[in-house]
Prior knowledge:
Elements: H1 3-17, H2 25-33, H3 37-49, E1 53-56, E2 63-66, E3 70-77, H4 84-96, H5 101-122, E4 126-133, E5 137-144, H6 149-156, H7 162-171, H8 185-192, E6 195-200, E7 203-208, E8 215-218, E9 228-235, H9 242-248, E10 259-263, H10 277-283, E11 292-296, H11 305-318, E12 323-327, H12 331-346
Parallel strand pairs: 10-11, 11-12
Antiparallel strand pairs: 1-2, 3-4, 4-5, 5-9, 6-7, 6-9, 7-8
Amino acid sequence: MNNKERGEEIRRQIVSDVRYHPADIAQHIATIFSITPQAVHNHVQRLEQKGWLQSSGTGKGKQYFLGDIRGHKSLFSLADALTEDVVWRDHYSFVVDGLPENIVDICHYGFTEMLNNVIDHSGGKHVSVSVLRDKEKVIIIVADDGEGIFRKIRRLCNLSDERQALFELSKGKLTTDMDNHTGEGIFFTSRVFDEFEIDSKGVRFCHDDHFTFDYILESEFSRNEAGTAVYMLIERNSTRDIQTVFDDYAGPDEFQFNKTVIPVRLAQYENEKLVSRSQAKRVLVRVERFKHVIFDFVGVSAIGQAFADEIFRVYAQQHPDIVLLPVKMEPNVEKMVKRAISSRAAI
């Protein structure tokens, strides 16, 4: 370990332990790292200047406390008996202490949902977890070295490729373990944060409230690189509330997740047009699990007659108990959808 890495380790330990040693943090850290209290004091001053610590009193009565900027990062072995709630409580909850309740709830929910997915499904050996709070936002990153989420879903659900696995995730209620998971965690986590990304095996899914639609990009990671990385960001002044998000996806007077919004644009591979029945059937996979399905056509300039007919006439006739609602349509899209709906009504 070089001097820079050792210095970073010392400062991480100071931030982690200052809550329990406000009056003797220098001596406490000096004992752990076998260095002088003066050397520790230099690190303490640096942290105070950057806002990670604050102090009160003078001389021997001086005490140190956590500042407004906080963070913690650790690497955990998945061979250990990890539980997401204990990891949060023992290692990370202090980072968001003092923030508005809705922000704390969102961070707690996203952290525990994503870490639980890694523990139960990744098949990896290690998970790296980072939570950082600065003056404007909180960022959570959970990265494992397992098989890769999209590849595993593709394999176990017999899908055509990783992009199809990602598209299914965007609908919600997708799980490879029905006995132990509802498949709602990733879906709702992506909706409660301002920014949410999953990066795995050459494919990256991005949901950003600043943009009109979700999108798929080529990953910065190699397709041969192990694991999955999940990135979550919430602005500290966000007024979003978890219960409100849950309610948005429940049907009228019901307390279950029975509504989904399908971003149709994600079904397009590169520059292809949505024209065929097979493409429509890909969009309709698992739609029967919901009672209200909203097809969001933002970013789709045109669709084919067969594509529209398969969804809004054929499927609609076969599933009269499911409400299919197209929204945000360009004129060419709306024309095809209306034509399919009219054909259904004429029968």
